[in-house]
Amino acid sequence: DRLKQTIRQDMRSLSQELENLRIQQRAVQLAQRRVRNQDLLLQAGRADMTDVLDAQAALVRAQNSLFSALTKYRTTELDLQSDLGLLNVSVNGLWEEADLDSLKLRPPAP
User: Terminus-to-terminus CA distance in the chain, angstroms?
Assistant: First the structure.
């Protein structure tokens, strides 16, 4: 019963992390657009270098958040596989992951 509860929680966490990953991907896209817009405004003389640098710094922060979200998603995915007993170690000492898509346990990819 406790294992069922743990697996349910892992599934909820995986779904939440996937949604967070999608949000962070969108944030990076928006930050990239802002950098392009500020570059164009700078070329047109309607913005200064500070605006461009602020946009670039925001892009770096968004990219860092995306990487963090991806790391959390993969960690949660591996936790689920471990709790299901699907994460094995090969003779070479490498993890062999289960194909969650074939088990229909993975939410749709972003």
Answer: 31
